[in-house]
Structure formats: C-alpha cells, structure tokens
TrEMBL record:
InterPro entries: Bact_CCA-adding_enz_type3_sf (IPR050264), CCA-adding_enz_C (IPR032810), CCA-adding_enz_firmicutes (IPR023068), NT_sf (IPR043519), PolA_pol_head_dom (IPR002646), PolyA_RNA-bd (IPR032828). This is CCA-adding enzyme. Its EC number is 2.7.7.72. GO terms for molecular function: ATP binding; CCA tRNA nucleotidyltransferase activity; CCACCA tRNA nucleotidyltransferase activity; magnesium ion binding; tRNA binding. Residues 22-141 form the Poly A polymerase head domain. It catalyses: a tRNA with a 3' CCA end + 2 CTP + ATP = a tRNA with a 3' CCACCA end + 3 diphosphate; a tRNA precursor + 2 CTP + ATP = a tRNA with a 3' CCA end + 3 diphosphate. It comes from Schinkia azotoformans LMG 9581. CTP binds at residues 27, 30, 111, 154, 157, 160, 163. The keyword Plastid does not apply.
Length: 405
C-alpha cells in the first residue's frame, strides 16, 4: 500500500475498533489502481457523522447533512463519509436529503462510474461489485447501472464523464456515450458553478484534453454550456491548439475567448460564474495578443503595465494562434524585462506632491495625466528615474505656463 493510505490507516483502525466498517473509496482507490499516487484520501464508513465526531479529537463538520465529516490527522485532512444513498434529486439540484445505509455495496451503487465505485479495505483488499477494475483495464468510463437513469438523476455526471476522459485518457462506453447525447440538454438544469468545476478539470486534464473537448463538440454538449451554443467548430479549433502546447487554465480561457471572438469578456465570465481574478488575468492576456497583432514589436510600456508573466502568456498564445515560433519574442521580452528602470509606479522618484509644488497648481485631472506621462518616459528610458532629471525634463517639455494636461 502506498504512503498516503498508510498515513490514513489509523483513522480506519479507530473506526473498526469502535465496531464500525470503514474503507478507502473514490478517486484515491481508482488512481491507486492506475498506479497514480495522490494525496487526498476519502473514507466511507458505517459510522454516523456524530459517531465520527465523537471518535476523533479534531473534526470539521463540512457536510453533516450529506454524512461528511473531515477528520484532521497528522496535518492531513480526510473526508469521512457515512455509507449513504442519495434521496430525491429534486429539480436536478443536489439531493435534498440523503439516506444513511449500512452496507458498503449500497454506498458504492450510488456512485457515478464503475471506476469510481471501488473500495479498498485496510489490508489492501479490493471490493469491486460493479467490475470497475475491468473498466480500468479497458480504459472505459461507464455508469454504475442504467446510464439514462443515472444522468437523469444528476446531469452533472455528463460533465464528470467527459472530464474523466480528459484526465485519464479513457473512452466512454458505447451505452454511456449514447445516453450522454440524449441527455446533454439536462445540463441547463444544474448550477453553472458545478458545471464550471468539472469543465475546468476537463480543460486541465493533461493527458487527453483535446479528446475531451472534441467529444463535447461531437456530442453537442456545447449547446448547453454558457455562450458556447452552436460553437462546435470553434471548440474543435480550440481543442487542436490546446493539444499543441501545455497551457495554464487562464491561458486556455483566454484562447477560447479569442477563438470565439467574444467582445464582452465580463459578460462571458459572468455567465460562467467565474472569479474576478480570472477575468482580470484573461483580459491582460487578450490585450497582449491584440497588441502583438497590431504591431509585432513588443513595447516596453506593455511589459511594464501588464507585467512580464502576463506578457509571456500573451506571447505564447499569440504565437500559437499565428503558428509562429515564440523564441525570438520571448528573448526580446527577457531583454526588456531586465532593462526596465522601474517595475511599479511606486518606484518612481517623484510623487504627485512634487508636481503640485513644481506647477504651483491644485490637484486635479492634470495631475494623474502628468504622472502617467512621466511614468511612460521613465519606462521608455527617455528620462532617468531621479527627481532632478525628471523635473528638468518635465519643465522643459511642458513648462508650467503651458500645462494643459
Ligand atoms: P478527483 O478527486 O480526482 O477529482 P474523484 O473521483 O475523487 O476525482 P470527487 O468529486 O472527489 O471525484 O468525488 C469523490 C467520489 O464521490 C467519486 O469518486 C464518486 O465515487 C463519488 N461522486 C462524486 N460526484 C458524484 C456524482 N455527481 N454522482 C455520483 N457519485 C459521485
Ligand atoms: Mg476526490
């Protein structure tokens, strides 16, 4: 057994000593059988949440209603979930209530795919009532039980199926695939936040994200995703480019937005319920792409205002889109970055107060405009970044009597 399981063993031992059953389950067992080691271990138990809370000193009640308690042990967090089956999925939301059950097999039967419905006991013995190991060997994603029922119950599983294709480089079983095509429209019934989590895991699946994105287009799933309606061709183009270079998640979003020719980025991301941080980063990348399209030389001011990291991403995306080599532009970026006299406005040798004094004028819109002019000149090397030089330069090219900024 691998290290992460050995570290989690005392939790299972404690539960067993108290008379309960407990097993390793979910993604950690699947990945262990695939020979991919991972940190987060999930445990399923016959103990009720209150039993778990009573048995361990440090717990966090993260989802008592759904049977989940986090147990803190040796600086690690373990999700311990009571054996359960899901109650009604009303209006395609998460089950409003769950029913705790006593058998492991029942618990495994509510899980989405056969490869995710495998348990392992404390001795490393595998419990696999739905032949998940066979599907692992055949690299197949298929639902536990009838796919139509399972996708109707929770349409998020459609996105989960495709994201496992992406992460594991597996195929959908023919039945599962047909059923997804029939039920893709149900994706509009569930919250965008849940879809986004799976979609982003799909994008960052290093192994087969091209295959997964192509599959979205093939099964017409995009018609039920925010602002991707009828964009199968664009998605295919996106898939091909994603496979040509390892991109970060933000870079992928920027690339997608560029390919879709989205103008209102904010609206796009709002529909996807994305974070503001993501909007900001993508906007920077898209600005760099646009600037490089207009003029192939990098400007020092662009590097200064967007920051070298964002510019680097923009360059990579631009070259990917234009099918150009990025080496020369990246070297240029490095040269510019190293020669920038300042990296932020606060490093300027003057402040607004200096300007107010030199021009003997009250603050106003002219002030920020003048600061920006000085900033630009400093960054472009037209004037050295010290007070005296800036004063001389500024008062020569823009004497107080003519300051109309
Ligand atoms: P990973 O953690 O690598 O993203 P995972 O398989 O552990 O993958 P989680 O979302 O962490 O996925 O869920 C843990 C387990 O819970 C799954 O392996 C599966 O057994 C079950 N599960 C999760 N979501 C669903 C769902 N929507 N329907 C049915 N079972 C689910
Ligand atoms: Mg998990």
């Amino acid at each position: 057994m691998e290290e992460p399981f050995i570290k989690a063993k005392p939790i299972i031992e404690t539960l067993i000593e108290a008379g309960f059953e407990a097993y390793f389950v979910g993604g950690s067992v699947r990945d262990h059988l695939l020979g991919r080691s991972r940190g987060d271990i999930d445990i399923a138990t016959s103990a009720l949440p209150e039993d778990v809370q009573a048995l361990f000193d440090r717990t966090i009640p993260v989802g008592i209603k759904h049977g989940t308690v986090v147990v803190l042990h040796n600086q690690e967090m373990y999700e311990v979930t009571t054996f359960r089956i899901d109650g009604d999925y009303q209006d395609f939301r998460r089950p409003s209530k769950v029913e705790f059950v006593t058998s492991l097999e029942e618990d495994l039967s509510r899980r989405d795919f056969t490869i995710n419905a495998i348990a392992m006991d404390i001795h490393g013995t595998i419990i696999d009532p739905f032949e998940g190991q066979k599907d692992l060997k055949n690299k197949l994603i298929q639902t536990v039980g009838n796919p139509d029922d399972r996708f109707l119950e929770d349409p998020l599983r459609i996105m989960r199926a495709i994201r496992f294709v992406s992460q594991l480089d597996f195929e959908l079983s023919p039945e599962t695939k047909k059923s997804i095509k029939r039920h893709a429209h149900l994706l509009t019934k569930i919250s965008v936040e849940r879809v986004l989590v799976e979609f982003e895991k799909l994008l960052t699946g290093q192994t087969a994200n091209k295959k997964a994105i192509m599959l979205i287009a093939e099964l017409q799933i995009q018609n039920y995703l925010p602002l991707l309606d009828n964009k199968a061709e664009e998605l295919r183009q996106f898939a091909v480019l994603c496979s040509q270079q390892a991109l970060t998640l933000e870079e992928q979003w920027a690339l997608l937005i560029h390919i879709l020719k989205i103008e209102d980025i904010e609206f796009f991301f709002r529909q996807w319920k994305s974070s503001n941080e993501r909007i900001k980063t993508c906007r920077l990348y898209l600005n760099v792409i646009a600037e490089l399209k207009n003029c192939t030389n990098l400007s020092r001011y662009t590097v200064y205002t967007y920051g070298p990291e964002a510019v680097k991403s923009g360059i990579r995306l631009y070259c990917l889109l234009e099918n150009k080599q990025s080496d020369a532009v990246l070297t240029e970026l490095q040269t510019i970055t190293q020669s920038l006299p300042i990296v932020a406005r606060k490093e300027m040798a003057i402040t607004g107060n200096d300007l107010i004094e030199w021009y003997s004028k009250k603050g106003g819109p002219w002030l920020s405009k003048t600061i920006e002019i000085v900033e630009r000149a400093v960054v472009n090397g037209e004037v050295e970044n010290n007070k005296e030089n800036i004063k001389e330069w500024l008062l020569t090219c823009n004497p107080p009597s003519e300051n109309n900024y």
